[in-house]
Amino acid sequence: MDRTPSVSALDLVGNTPLLHLRNLGRETPGVELYAKAEWFNPGGSVKDRAALSMVLEAERTGELAPGKTLLDATSGNTGIAYAWIGAARGFPVKICLPQNASRERQRILRAHGVDLVLTSPMEQTDGAIREARRLYAEDPDRYYYCDQYSNANNWKAHYHGTAAEIWEQTAGRITHWVAGLGTSGTFMGTTRRLREFNSRIRCISFQPDFAFPGIEGLKHMGTAIVPPIYDPQLADEDRAVSDDQALEMVRRLAREEGLLVGPSSGAAMACTLSVARELKEGVVVTLFPDSGRNYLSERFWDEL
Ligand SMILES: Cc1ncc(COP(=O)(O)O)c(C=O)c1O
Fold first, then answer.
1. Residue 225 phi, psi (nearest 5)
2. Is the pLDDT of residue 304 over 70?
3. In the annotation, is 47 catalytic?
């Protein structure tokens, strides 16, 4: 009898560990700090959750049918998620990506056979979004335009997954939830469900403090194309984090916690500490979207 368990990479999305940040937490006695370690997802980032949810739903409804190419714009991590999920499920993927996305990212995408369209680095993800819209308008029958910025199955991945995991992993003790805004899927979905579990949980979003952030994956909502799934009313509070604060925390997480994380995780840590410093007690939970390994060729490592 064959007893080999049948596990595919798709089964490994979600259920990420919740790390207790004991060392950085020493600064805020009485307040426990935790982070979801999203680089444990098979594609290495939180975006595996949203991509899998959007793809499975599009397959179920028939929008992503044989013969169609999945098309979207991304700053990188969602593209990687589409790339490996597309390879695993057997559909082609076309990604519009700002040209300044790291070399490692571009190589991973090409390794999975993605058709890459590089867009102006000056326009950040907005340029990639415009190009994806243009390609879709040109040939709508050819593509399933996944549109992670407007797709409700993006935030629903966090509603059904991330939030339920956090509630269980903290045994319902969470008092504060902190997350950055990119498409806003992570914050929107997790916040909606956590509020259903306990309406007293304080939910704090954050974004970069200016229009051209060096924090990959995050958007400055005041100047960017605002994602249709983003509802600014949902947060109890919205804070700003600077590039410098984010990179300082990337350094501290590497040296004091042993965690090599990306810039948006550093930003999440900076915002989490700013929240924790205002409290006498509490259980503050954030999410670290990806690993620092994706950014090793970037200049900021020399400056850290
Ligand atoms: C590195 C990184 N951090 C944060 C985010 C933001 O997550 P969300 O799109 O769910 O708001 C992203 C999204 O692409 C990301 O790639």
1. -65, 120
2. no
3. yes
Any atom of ligand 1 within 6 Å of the Cβ of 213: no
pTM summary value:
0.95
CATH class of the domain defined by 47-145: alpha beta
Exactly one of 45, 75, 205, 264 is catalytic; name it: 264
Residue 290 CB–ligand 1 contact under 6 Å:
yes
Q: What digits encode the pLDDT tens for the residues 88-126? A: 999 999 999 999 888 888 999 999 999 999 999 888 888
- Indicate if the pLDDT at residue 54 is higher than 80: yes
Burial (CB count within 10 angstroms: exposed 0-12, middle 13-18, buried 19+), residue 260: middle
pLDDT at position 177 over 70 = yes
The residue contributing the CA closest to ligand 1 atom 12 is 217
* List of E strands, the chain: 18-20, 31-37, 69-73, 93-98, 115-119, 143-145, 176-180, 202-208, 237-241, 282-288
Q: Where are the beta strands (DSSP E) in 5-102?
A: 18-20, 31-37, 69-73, 93-98
Domain boundaries, the chain: 9-45+155-303, 47-145
Query: Which CATH number fits the domain 9-45+155-303, given the four candidates 3.40.50.620, 1.20.1250.20, 3.30.565.10, 3.40.50.1100?
Result: 3.40.50.1100
214: pLDDT strictly greater than 80: no
Choose the catalytic residue: 47, 94, 156, 219: 47
Q: What is the CA(6)–ligand 1 centre distance, in A?
A: 30
Q: Is 184 in the pocket of ligand 1 (CB under 6 A)?
A: yes
Q: Does 9-45+155-303 match 47-145 in CATH topology?
A: yes
**CB 182 less than 6 A from any atom of ligand 1:** yes
CA distance 186 to 164: 13
Catalytic status, residue 219: no
